[in-house]
Every structure is written in structure tokens, then in C-alpha cells.
Amino acid sequence: MKKEIKEQIDITLQKRQDALSKYACRDKDAVRYHPFKEDYRPPFWHDTDRIIYNLSYSRYSDKTQVFSFEDNDHISKRMTHVQLVSKVARTIGRMLNLNEDLIEAAALGHDIGHTPLGHEGEYILNEISLRELGEYFKHNVQGVRTYMYIDRGGNGSNLTLQVLDAVLCHNGEMVSGEYRPKKKTKEEFLKEYEASYKDKEVSKHLIPMTLEGCVVRISDIIAYIGRDIEDAIMIGVVKREQIPKSIKDVLGDNNPQIIATIIDDIINNSYGKPYIKMSDKVYRAIVDLKKFNYENIYNKANTKEELEYYNKGFNLLFDKYLKDIEYNNEESDIFKDFLKYKKEAYFNNTNSKRMVIDFLAGMTDDYFRDRCRKIVGK
């Protein structure tokens, strides 16, 4: 790039930084674990590129959001979800004058650790991890592991601390009325990450280190809570009139209304503040809507037979791939599709059981089912 053009671009980017809220995370505050020479792209913008051009991002397109076995192209997948989170979060971030580059990177990368078959897959893989390694498996923790120790042959993507922290702390299952960022050092972040493997309560209490991370966390809920209802109505799992009047009177009864209401409420209660906050009325309605979704959608998303199939498949594949590593079976899928692309750094820091868990966690729904058919026979 010509020197004079680069200088003008730098001036423009700096003006944008100067115009941000005093509570926003500046580009100059970006921290990486490994030395990295930035180009004309600001660091968080660069993180987005490193996320979306990675092969792990492509697999979002065939990973379950809620419904795994529905033959309907309009049902949400993880790819749809992270894009919706990004849009919701950037809308809030722009209105609050926060760093949209950081928000976009965190939003698009936040669910990369999700297993095939959604939360049911995560639940089963957690049982396997506890049994085999004595460690908990959580998709937010696996997301950090993916970006730090699995991607790019095992060398990691070297994302900024702020983006990694937002991924770790995004837990969309835990809703709060207020989100206040908690400052952290690189060492404190790693301590939280490592503790999450040993104590299942740690993930429930993680707090993002930036206001942008807080926006992504609440946007995760906003993006799925209404869209999951629309998906469920589309396939006949629930009817719109089943939504309680107390919820509809506050949030509305369709996804556009729900999203608009919550975003508007957050902006009204958070503008110019060092925290992200909702009114008590909207917060209670979200809590009630989540409860409604669990009782009427999530707990009914899979049949007993499907759950048994998932469980049998995960366990059989784990045992098979562990033996394949033990006997150095290079014709196995885990060698041909996973380990052959890994570099020395990955093998030096990963035992065989963790390798299998990494491989299973990264599978898409179709890849998982195809491998199961070879063993289970259906």
C-alpha cells in the first residue's frame, strides 16, 4: 500500500476510535499471546478475518441449533445463529458507540466449540470427558481451545485476548438483568479457562472483560430466544397462541417484535453507562420466555430413540478412534481428516483421549451421522 494512502487510512481509523464511548475497548488495547505484526486492518477486524477464513467456521453450516433431524432448509443452523448474534450485537454496539470490530469477531466466533447435534451432543461429550479425563466439556471452553490450540494445525489462530475472553464468557444459557465487565490480565484469563475444566460452576460465573463482550453475551440470547420459537412453529412443535399473555404483552409474540423490544430496552437502559442493563420488566419476560422454550421446545426437540442413537454413536466412535490412535491406524478417519493436518505443537500438548474429543467436537451433523452408520448400521 502506498505510504500516503496508508497515512490517510490511519487518520480515518483513529477518528473512529476517538469517537467511541469512553467505556469502549480501543484497538490500541488489543492484546495477543504471541507477537504479531498487524497490517492496515485494526486488530479486532483482523480477528474476524482469521475466524471466518478458518475451516472450523465453514462447519457452522451443518451444526445443529436446536432441531437435528428436521429435513427443512429454513431451520436454523449454527451458521445462521452466529450471523444473527453478530447483527443484533452490532446494532446495540453502534447505538452505544462501542467497538463494532471487536463485537463482530466475538459474535461470529463465539459458538465454534459446539459439537454436532447441539446441546445434546455437548451433554454426551461432557459425560465422556468426565469419564475418560476427569474434566468437564463445555462448548465455550472448547471454543477457546479451538482458537488457541487446535486451529491452524495446532498452532492456534492467535486471536486477541478480548475476543477469546468474549468466547469463553458468552454463556447464552445464563441470563442476567445487568452485565458489568471485569478487567483481566492474560494470566487471569488463562486461570479462568483452565479452571473451567475442573469445576463445572466456573462457567456459570464468568464475566466478560469488555463491554463489547457483555453485548455479545446478551445478544446470544436475543438472537435465539425468538428465532427458536419461529422454527418450532414452522415444524409444528409449538403454536404461537401457546406463548403466555404475560410474555406477549411485554416482548411481543414473534421474532421481529422480540428482538426490537429487547434491543430498544437495552439501549434505553445502557446508553452512556459502563454496563449493559435491561429493565426489570423485560428481564423477567426473557426469563419466563426461556422457561417456556425449555418446557415446550428444547425438552421436546429430540425423541427418546434419537437421544439413545446420539449416545450410542458418540461412545462407539470415541472407542473406535481411541483404538485407531493406539494402533496407529492411518486409514482411520481421525488420521485422514484430522491428525494428518496437525503439527508438532498439537501432539506435544494433547493426549490421545483429548485428540478424540477434539475430533468429535469438530464434526458436523452429517459427518457424525455418516460415521455412525458405518458402526451402528443406520
What's the CATH superfamily of the largest domain, by name? Hypothetical protein af1432
Counted beta strands:
2
CATH architecture of the largest domain: Orthogonal Bundle
Order of helices and strands: HHHHHHHHEHHHHHEHHHHHH
Number of domains: 2
- What's the level 1 CATH class of the largest domain? Mainly Alpha
CATH fold topology of the largest domain: Hypothetical protein af1432
Q: How would you summarize what this structure contains?
A:
By secondary structure, this protein is mainly alpha-helical. 60% of the residues lie in helices and 1% in strands.
Annotate the secondary structure layout.
Elements: H1 3-18, H2 43-52, H3 55-58, H4 78-95, H5 100-109, H6 118-133, H7 139-150, H8 161-168, E1 178-179, H9 186-198, H10 211-225, H11 227-234, H12 245-251, H13 255-270, E2 276-277, H14 280-296, H15 304-326, H16 333-336, H17 344-348, H18 352-362, H19 365-376
Antiparallel strand pairs: 1-2
Tags for this model:
378 residues, mainly alpha, 2 domains, globular
What can you tell me about this protein's structure?
The protein has 19 helices and two strands. The chain is an all-alpha fold. It has two domains: 3-300, Hypothetical protein af1432, CATH 1.10.3210.10; 305-376. A two-stranded antiparallel ribbon has the order 1-2. Helix 6 (118-133) packs across helix 15 and helix 15 packs across helix 18. It is globular, with a radius of gyration of 21 Å. The chain starts with a helix and ends with a helix. The model has no long low-confidence stretch (mean pLDDT 92).
